[in-house]
Structures are given as structure tokens and as C-alpha cells.
Write the C-alpha cells for this entry.
Amino acid sequence: MNFQWYPGHMTKAKRQMQEDIKLIDLVVEIVDARIPLSSRNPDIDELGKNKYRLILMNKADLADKKVTDQWSNFFKEKGYFVVSLDARSKNGMKSISDIIMEACKEKIERDLKRGIKNRPVRAMVVGIPNVGKSTFINSYAGKACAKTGNKPGVTKGKQWIRLNKNVELLDTPGILWPKFEDQMVGLRLALIGSIKDEILNTDELAIELIKLLKTSYPGVLAERYDIEEVEDNVQLLCEIARSRNCLSKGNELDYSKAAILLIDDFRSGKLGKLSLEFPPEA
């Protein structure tokens, strides 16, 4: 499977971000806790160099906590401020303001020395599609000020949001990068829903998910669907179809229906708290 999705508006959005970066102090990068490295746009490091950096690992409620903690240490060692959170339930949100202030401490002290008081920290919120940027902003601001949707590409334009006297946020559209050098990255992004489902082969995607889960979380599929985890992955998908009564006309097993069911169960956390990516060994 070859994964790629880079609509025209993303090129324009990237150019706009290059302009806006001059106005801000801090880059708040939102990633998906299940694939923290694969859900980082490599362009952001170049874009945000010389800025304070905060990584928010969102959807931590869906990820394997032990693995998320390892990722947190991984990023902290590289000099980032890091918070794990679930923006929907607001779990982990309380510490954000303090960490923004801590990340920008030098800037605030510099302002005070120059006699500048109460100038808010200006933060740009960045991230690829469907990692929960708008949900985070709405939870943080306590009101619905950014459009949300569980499909990529909902936020098209930029908008400034004044949170309080200390922090202003600039919301930006989700942007991917033009070419995935590693197709494994594309696969992980497809599995969490950052690439439009309409352009994907969900049958193949489900088979790839089965392979990943059998390797990292053996027994999870057997437990969820009350089946035996057979070696043949196509056969295993058929077993899921049988277990969940996924049938087409004529009572044939509906392989595609089972594929969609499996992917939805993974994305919604019904298979359990699972991570699809692990930190590189030190």
C-alpha cells in the first residue's frame, strides 16, 4: 500500500505558518499519543527553530500508558516540554498554562527587564490533521472557539484566540508533508485517521493492523472477538467477520465490513489502550 495525501490547501497553510512564526514565542505541537513520532510533521522542527517548544501527546486515553511515559522521557531528553492529555475529557489540561509559562520563562523575564509588563505569550498550535487541535483549543479556552470534527481538514484558516491575559493562541490548519519517506509512517497515520479514509483500501489497512497488533499485543484480538489468533491474517479477518456476524447478501462473510469494524474498534479504544509506535532503543 502506498500512502499519500497532500491537498492543495496544505501548501498555502504552510506558507502562512512561515509568515506567522515571526509573531509567536512558543510552538505548541499536538501529536497522537499512539504514534507520537509518526504524527509529527518533520517540517515543524525547521519552522519552529529558535522558538520555545511544547509537545502535547493528545488521545493519551487511547494509548498504552507505559509506552506514553517512555515517549515523554524521549522528548524531554531532546529538550521539549511535554504533556500527555486527553483533550476531550480535559484530563491533563490543568497543567498546560503553568507549563506554557515555564517554557517561556526567559521571554517573560526579558520583557520585565525591558519594562514590558503583561504582554501575553503568543503560542502557535500546530499538528497534522485529526490529532485533536481544535478539541484541545476548545477545552483549554473553555468555549467552542475552534471548529471540531473527527475528520481531517476541518480547520482551513488561521484564527487568534485570547485565552486569558497571559496567553494568546494562534490556531492553524492541520498540515501533512508532501512525501512520506517511510511508508510505515503513512500506514500509522492512515490507521489513526489522519489520511482521508476515502482514498484508502480499508481491507489492506485492516490486515496491516492485525499484523501490528499480533506482534505488539498478542491476544488482544482473541479477547475482543472471542476467536483464535490464527497465523493467516486474512483468515483472522474472516474469523472476526464470523464472530461479529458481518454478512453480505446471500449470507457470505463480508470481509470489508469486518475490516471497517476492526479499524473503528481500534480508533475508538474498544480494543484497549494500544500504542502503534515505540521509542527508539537508546
Q: What stands out?
A: The longest helix spans residues 202-216. The radius of gyration is 20 Å.
